[in-house]
């Protein structure tokens, strides 16, 4: 057969049939259909884009105790010598991709972390894998979860992907952490606990299979044995008489496994010491089973030899992929929708191109200014209504002013009662000194200054907090910009507060002048009380000038001491009316409307000469999360496209 060695195989009836085995590394069947490679490449492509971070992919994980022959099995399948030695040799998960070429030269590619190297000499594999492990796990005897991918393309390998995991150890050696055994088990469980993983357990024929840690771990996560395939190694080292026990194991009489057992004979240490090449070792493997008195039947049942193992593993993986594809497709779709929903909760990030950052900054500033403008113009901005917050403060101010009327009247009455004794000067009896009454008003109005300042502080705090809320919601992902704008708001409000303080003091000083137009006060007077107290009719025209204002006679009508308290309270009504409106209007104008205009202007100025990159530097956690979601979205979308092309 084209220069290939003829080996004898047997069908289920025991008749001889011929099949070929490569002279070079690996001996595998060529009868797999064209659909095999695309399915395996589909999963590898999905793993390459990192989709295994989001969903579990079908895979074969190789586990075994130290010195179980795991490396020998992988060498036989791949045709290359992998690192060997005492202790833990596999210190990182090794993804071994075997790609069968119809024609072409052997080539290999190793990739890990951000490094990738392609080579054409199979003898380099050992050193390159060791180098990768040293970089990832350190130059010690520790382990690492990071994955190393070794892809081998050759006409002499089958289409197969395996993940080799560190060998299970129980006792730490010098330099290893005390919990090295637990670390390795945790790493192994990370892979084999997934229902999508076929567990390939490597067990030497020379040990009691019931006590094998690797098989016990497989049973813990796969109690029915539906995902577990066991490989029995070193059949040539069985003590004489122990062959029957191995046959019982393979026949499932000891620990039944749905996928069963396969026995292989790979290169041992003596074969390596004698420089027996892998190709020769594969021939020896087949010859051993063909001539063995007990195990030849296993070859007939296709339960022995590396060739049968390669064939079986490829078929198992392909069937597993076919079976998993519907569920995998559903998982990808569900995860994709979840990622899309979560991404909606994150605002659009800044453009990566620095030239686009300026327009983006202008855009978010304009949106911010629009909200501030709406707030100052109508009181509403999105779900905020600032007047709903300010009105209670203005009401408190009004209630306070109204309540002071009682104390004011009491002070006037007390002053009148004590007037002749304490306040009367040279004036005649019943002729009161206006300055004494004026002082009562001045003192009372002056005392209103501090309560007005309290109202100012409360209103400033409310407006500032609302402005800051808009700032945080607009720039929550940009801490530098958020800090600058927040500080800008504080500075503006401080300056506006100083302006309002000055005007409140000015206004209370003006109120101490005790002035209003005659007509204004006259309209406040309760004329119905005048006839009762003076016996005169205030409606008589002789008391008025042409413009309906009291003349001197009319003023004398009211110039009686017993009417002073009522008159002063009526005047206080005017003062109250001015203060209850003026202070809120002053606060609205300076702390809200003017402050909004100043803020909008300064925000527009902020764009000029700004370090746009620094301003748009995102909050680290939020930026990382959005970047992670965008990467997941891209992976999941690519995975969907890959599956749709294959189905």
Keywords:
single chain, 647 residues, alpha/beta, Rossmann fold, Four Helix Bundle (Hemerythrin (Met), subunit A), 9-stranded mixed sheet, two-stranded antiparallel sheet, 22 helices, 13 strands, Dynamin_stalk, cytoplasm, Dynamin_GTPase_CS, GTP-binding
Structural features, described:
It is built from 22 helices and 13 strands. Strand 5 (107-112) and strand 6 form a beta hairpin. It is an alpha/beta fold. The protein has a 9-stranded mixed beta sheet, sandwiched between helices. It has helices at 36-48, 70-78, 125-137, 180-192, 213-221, 243-250, 269-273, 278-291, 296-300, 306-344, 354-378, 386-417, 419-423, 434-446, 449-475, 479-511, 518-524, 529-534, 552-558, 564-606, 612-615, 620-646, and strands spanning 5-10, 16-21, 59-64, 94-100, 107-112, 115-119, 148-154, 160-164, 197-204, 228-233, 261-263, 380-381, 384-385. Among the domains are: 61-304, 3-Layer(aba) Sandwich (Rossmann fold), CATH 3.40.50.300; 354-512 and 582-616, Dynamin, middle domain (Four Helix Bundle (Hemerythrin (Met), subunit A)), CATH 1.20.120.1240. Helices cover 55% and strands 11% of the residues. It is rod-shaped and about 145 Å long. Keywords: Cytoplasm, GTP-binding, Nucleotide-binding. It is found in: Cytoplasm. Residues 54-326 form the Dynamin-type G domain.
């Amino acid at each position: 057969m084209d220069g290939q060695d003829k080996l004898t195989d047997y069908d289920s009836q025991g008749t001889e049939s011929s099949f070929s085995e490569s002279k070079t590394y690996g001996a595998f069947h060529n009868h797999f259909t064209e659909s095999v490679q695309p399915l395996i490449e589909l999963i590898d492509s999905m793993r390459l884009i990192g989709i295994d971070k989001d969903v579990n992919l079908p895979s074969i994980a190789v586990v075994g105790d130290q010195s179980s022959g795991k490396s020998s099995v992988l060498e036989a399948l791949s045709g290359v010598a992998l690192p060997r030695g005492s202790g833990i040799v596999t210190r990182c998960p090794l993804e071994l991709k075997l790609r069968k070429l119809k024609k072409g030269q052997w080539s290999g590619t190793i990739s890990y972390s951000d490094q990738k190297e392609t080579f054409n000499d199979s003898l380099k594999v050992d050193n390159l894998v060791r180098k990768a492990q040293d970089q990832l796990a350190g130059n010690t005897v520790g382990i690492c979860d990071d994955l190393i991918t070794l892809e081998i393309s050759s006409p002499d390998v089958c289409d197969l992907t395996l993940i080799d995991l560190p060998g299970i150890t129980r006792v730490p050696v010098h330099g290893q952490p005390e919990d090295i055994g637990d670390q390795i088990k945790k790493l192994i469980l990370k892979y084999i606990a997934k229902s999508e993983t076929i567990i390939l357990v490597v067990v030497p024929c020379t040990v009691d299979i019931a006590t094998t840690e690797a098989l016990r771990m497989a049973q813990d996560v796969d109690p029915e044995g539906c995902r577990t395939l066991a490989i029995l190694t070193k059949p040539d080292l069985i003590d004489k008489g122990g062959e029957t026990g191995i046959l019982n194991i393979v026949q499932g009489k000891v620990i039944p496994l749905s996928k069963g057992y396969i026995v292989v004979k790979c290169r041992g240490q003596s074969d390596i010491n004698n420089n027996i090449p892998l190709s020769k070792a594969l021939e020896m493997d087949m010859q051993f089973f063909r001539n063995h008195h007990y195990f030849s039947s296993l070859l007939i049942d296709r339960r022995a030899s590396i060739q049968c193992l390669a064939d079986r593993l490829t078929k198992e993986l392909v069937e597993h992929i076919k079976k998993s594809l519907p569920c995998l497709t559903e998982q990808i779709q569900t995860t994709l929708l979840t990622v899309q929903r979560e991404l909606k909760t994150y605002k659009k990030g800044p453009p990566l191109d620095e030239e686009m950052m300026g327009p983006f900054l202008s855009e978010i500033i304009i949106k911010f200014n629009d909200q501030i403008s709406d707030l100052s113009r109508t009181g509403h901005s999105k779900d905020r209504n600032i007047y709903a917050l300010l009105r209670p403060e203005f009401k408190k101010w009004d209630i306070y002013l109204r309540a002071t009327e009682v104390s004011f009247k009491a002070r006037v009455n007390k002053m009148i009662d004590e007037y002749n004794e304490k306040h009367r000067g040279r004036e005649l009896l019943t002729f009161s000194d206006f300055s004494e009454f004026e002082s009562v008003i001045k003192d009372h109005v002056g005392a209103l200054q501090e309560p007005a300042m309290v109202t100012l502080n409360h209103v400033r705090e409310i407006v500032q907090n609302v402005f800051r809320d808009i700032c945080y919601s607009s720039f929550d992902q940009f801490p530098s910009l958020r800090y600058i704008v927040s500080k800008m708001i504080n500075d503006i409000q401080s300056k506006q507060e100083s302006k309002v303080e000055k005007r409140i003091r000015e206004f209370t000083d003006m109120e101490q002048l005790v002035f209003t137009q005659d007509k204004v006060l006259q309209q406040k007077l309760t004329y119905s009380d005048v006839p009762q107290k003076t016996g005169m009719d205030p409606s008589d025209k002789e008391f008025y000038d042409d413009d309906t204002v009291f003349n001197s006679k009319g003023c004398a009508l009211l110039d009686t001491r017993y009417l002073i308290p009522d008159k002063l309270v009526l005047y206080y009504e005017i003062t109250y009316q001015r203060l209850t409106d003026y202070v809120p209007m002053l606060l609205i104008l300076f702390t809200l409307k003017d402050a909004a205009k100043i803020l909008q202007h300064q925000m527009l100025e902020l764009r000029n000469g700004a370090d746009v990159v620094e301003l748009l530097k995102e909050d680290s956690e939020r930026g990382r999360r959005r970047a992670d979601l965008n990467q997941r979205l891209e992976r999941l979308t690519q995975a969907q496209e890959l599956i749709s092309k294959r189905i």
